[in-house]
Amino acid sequence: MTNQLKRSLGLWAAVAAAVGIVVSSSAMVSLGEGFGIGGQGFIFAMVFALVLNLCVAFTFAELSGILPRAGGLNRYTLPAMGSFIGMIAVISGYVLVTIFAGSAEAGIAGLVFSEVFSIEINSTIISISAVVILGLVNIFGVKFFSWTQIVLTTLLIASTVILGIIGLTGIGSGEPLSYSLDFNPMGWGVLSLTALAFWLFVGIEFVTPLAEEIKKPKVYIPLSMVLGLGIIFAADLLFGFAAIKYVSLNNLAESASPHVVAAEAILGQTGLMWMGIVTVLATASTLNTLISAISRMLFAMGQEGEMPKVFSSLNRWGAPWAAIFFLCILFVSFLLIGITNSSSITTFILAGCLCWMIAYIVAHLNVIILRFKYPNVKRGFKSPFGITFQVLGITGMLYIIFNIFPDPEIKAQIYKYTIVFLAITVIYAIWWIKFVMKKKLFETIPLEDLLDESSTEIENESPDAKENFNI
């Protein structure tokens, strides 16, 4: 058994991984609600959110260009701020988010499948079956993940675009609204919807933990994130404008599943069934990406001694089986407990997403610190205009954090849960680093050591892989 990952993913597989978590069921809900509240003017919030996520893409592309290895943010933080900050960013910003968001997505799939297709099977059983199937897909290695993700992403994006075109051209069976809408009824106030628009793109960096399995990481990783953002923006724009052509803004804003309402208004029962399939595909794509990317973060943390060593083990297909099994057990446990059906699940997820924003701030700070600490290191990709995009990104994240939700009471609950998430992570990180790793909290690892480690691991790979890895 080897602990070395294999390079086998091409560009489209990288794009599919980049958009895998972005095209989620919750993102479809955010899209419908955003257009319902802001009308056509929601496009301004979408553009603002797109710019902030381009900052994220540039930052992660540069970090991955320095260290094109599995592990993502935790690996990049080691030479900049050390294990303590890296563990807090990854565990609170990714692992905890995955527990709630992944379980919720699985729950949505079960409910939609049962309701839309009138299947008389308990929705929890359907949800657990989806987790088990996608867990097995990932257990059989990155090629199985790649094939599955490419199919899911292609079908999902194509369905969203086609439904949007049908709605905008009016060739469906539905009747468009008979009255016209003001383009931007909220004026500049539409920018207050940026936090809602941001979730349409969040997670584009999930391609970076697969860096050791992508054929040309220094080219394909930045390209896949930029292409992914463009594809998502275009698809969401088409469907969003089609939705408000057939459904009143109030109905979209107040619906718990506005994307389903819009699809039914555009194509009747056919649209309802179609969007039911799209919702299930979105959930499958999200779960598939979460299991693949987060397991590789845990794999890298196991290698660095920041998690139990078993997480660094690979099976015969080159998959981090222990980390995959651990995540699937968590998903199933939360589904059985029923927390994903709790009335406060949205608050839990938003609290986790706030932690995600903190993780993004850490990533931007990593780039700034490494620019000054290692100005001459070779970078496969360098974010343009100095650290402009990093400063802009940090400013934007702080704006979103302070405007996470319009209702003050729910906003306070989100902050409360965020503090709990961070407290749990901080306690674990301090205990593990001080008593298990026996290191200083802010002790960094020299970048040269990480580069030497990467170079040593690449020696046994194919000549093509060595060329692609060349630092």
Q: What key attributes describe this structure?
A:
AA/rel_permease1; transmembrane; transmembrane helix; disordered C terminus; 70% helix; 17 helices; single chain; 0% strand; 471 residues; transmembrane transporter activity; globular; mainly alpha; Amino acid/polyamine transporter I
Protein model, in words:
It is found in: Cell membrane. Keywords: Cell membrane, Membrane, Transmembrane, Transmembrane helix. Its main location: membrane. With 471 residues, this protein is mostly helical. It has a single domain, classed as Up-down Bundle (Amino acid/polyamine transporter I). The protein has helices spanning 11-20, 25-38, 42-66, 73-77, 83-116, 123-139, 142-169, 194-198, 217-246, 249-254, 258-303, 321-337, 345-373, 388-402, 408-436, 447-458, 463-469. Helix 7 packs parallel to helix 9 and helix 13 packs antiparallel against helix 14 (388-402). Mean pLDDT is 82; it is low at 456-471.
Overall residue-averaged pLDDT value: 82
User: Helicity range of the residues?
Assistant: 55-70%
Count of domains: 1
**Count of discrete alpha- or pi-helical segments spanning 4 or more residues:** 17
Query: Overall 3D geometry?
Result: globular
- Architecture per CATH nomenclature, i.e. the level-2 architecture: Up-down Bundle
What percent strand?
under 5%
CATH hierarchy, class: Mainly Alpha
Terminal-residue CA separation: 27 Å
Using DSSP, what is the number of strands? 0
CATH fold group: Amino acid/polyamine transporter I
Main sheet specs: none
* Radius of gyration based on Cα positions: 22 Å
Low-pLDDT ranges: 456-471
Secondary-structure class: mainly alpha
Subcellular location: Cell membrane
Transmembrane segments: 42-64, 76-101, 121-140, 152-174, 186-207, 219-244, 272-299, 319-339, 345-372, 384-402, 414-433
GO molecular function: transmembrane transporter activity
Membrane topology: Multi-pass membrane protein
